[in-house]
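ok trying again, last paste got cut off:
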Amino acid sequence: MLTELIDLLIYDWAGMDPESKFTGAVHFFFYDTIKIFLLLAAMIFVIGVLRSYLPEHKLKAWMSQGGIVGNFVAALFGAITPFCSCSSIPIFISLLKAGVPLGVTFSFLITSPIINEYLVILMAGEFGMPITIAYVCSGLLIGTVAGAILGKMGLSNYLEQDIINSARADDSEVQHTIITRLRYGLDEAVSVIQQIWLWVIVGVGIGAFIHNYVPQDTIHSLMAATGIFSVPIATVLGVPMYGSCAAIVPIAVVLFQKGIPLGTALAFMMAMAALSLPEAIMLRRTMHLKLIGIYFGITTLAIIFTGYLLNLLANYL
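nice, full thing came through this time. structure:
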């Protein structure tokens, strides 16, 4: 429905050329902007209502139990949420507001875009179940380990405290009714969107440009010519390639079919899903540049390691 409405707007009403790259960028911008804002409003509202049932100290205890167990639970939570890297940020903020440790929230932020149900369905159809299962396990491993490492580094001072502390309250002291719970969720959605809307628009705008103007053939030829260094190069190339899960899987399949090793293709796909320039721009509202750099660096290294591991295991999958 959303696609049809945007097609009507830019093709029929505005009369734009459907074959133009600029038109493609405009279509991408409108579609992703509307989709992300709808997801933001809906999911922040739902999280707000759920938080009214679960006091912050209980949520913190649930995700912080047993050291790395909290990171694994957060990674599992991320795996069942159908979000791209940009759409995961509001949930990341909500978890921080609830007092969940930074490293645990990073486990969610890393895993959520790497694994989701429709990406898994697409992968199972294109790659088969053994490779899909290996991909899911790799994503959970990356989210759990990278989040645990980030949590041990004591980086909380690099958060923007105004957005983290805003609207924080002790829910255990409030006797909620259905109406107050709904109002709480609505207020939470409005508050967060007011603080990050500009970053979303700027980020999606950059993503739309990259999505339509970066030549795929150049990427294919570069990765094919780099031998043992193909995994880190594919990962670095994947970081700025912002796109939806539906676009990521076909690209990875094409790379694999052209002879790119399995781990290299999946590392490119993971980087494209988990890390993006638009995500970094949106995260700037919540944390300092140094923390964004550390987060991107550790996650990139984890994806590179996983890519090499999958290349070694490719013959058994």
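cool. The longest helix spans residues 178-213. The chain has one domain: 2-9+20-316.
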